[in-house]
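Researcher: Next entry: Flagellin (Falsiroseomonas selenitidurans).
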Amino acid sequence: MNSINTNSGALVALQALNRTNDEMAVTQKRVSTGLRVADAKDDGAAYAVAQQVRADMSALTSANEQLGGSKGILDTTLAGLKKVSDSMTEIKGVLEKLGDSRVTGDERDGYNQQFSALVNKVNRFLGDATYNGSTLITTDDLAGTDITAVRNERGDGYTITAVDAADLTFDDAVNVTEAGTTADADYTAALTAEEARAMLGSADDAASLGTNKLFSTVQTAVNNAMNQFGSDSKYVDAQVSYNKEKLDALEGGLGALIDADLAKESARLQSLQIRQQLGTQSLSMANQAPQALLSLFG
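Model: Predicted structure:
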């Protein structure tokens, strides 16, 4: 229809150009963000899944940070227990000497002082086994507590059980403080030869032990604690490693879900730019069509 009020060709060209501009806006958004799904408008279902995956990744990262703290206290405790275990070797040597009935007088006093010094050293090793104010060694003055670490994004926990310091030393009243000193007087020993031999042996006659402990009982407690915390430390290491691998897997899945194929988007962008140029020219030509009507009035 020859009309200057209605230009059907221009209307069609304009609609096509608008569609091209809309597609170009989408493609430019993908190129600029690197994401196929940048917000809920792009793909509501995919965006909801992506947000859940991001939350899981954040929770896993936090879990690993918390497990790092658990690893710190475990390693600190194991370091202290290793020193205690090394001291047990020295203690046994001194007990052997004290078990000899020929050792008397000042010589016995000297060995008893060595034994006391070694026990007090053990007490201080136990008292120094703290990390960021926490400890897995329980005493009257050092309130060690079980630790439950969050191990995954669901909030599941792993419990590390504290041990009683009194089982790890010959001093029944350990009273070790966080500063590594005894709250009460230092432990002092005055072992007889019979008591020393009983501590080293099976102690068939329990009365001969008095208030003292079997060497094997204390050594077993130290070994058990080292085994327990060593296993806990290995588990924490394995869980941290697994969480890292899981984070990588989640990141890969998230990328497959929402990342844009930039090579494809680049090719599409060039195509749309050409379409936009052609659409602009087509609209310009359609807008010029009514000018031909002027020749009818010349």
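Model: Note for the record: Confidence is low (pLDDT under 50) at residues 178-182.
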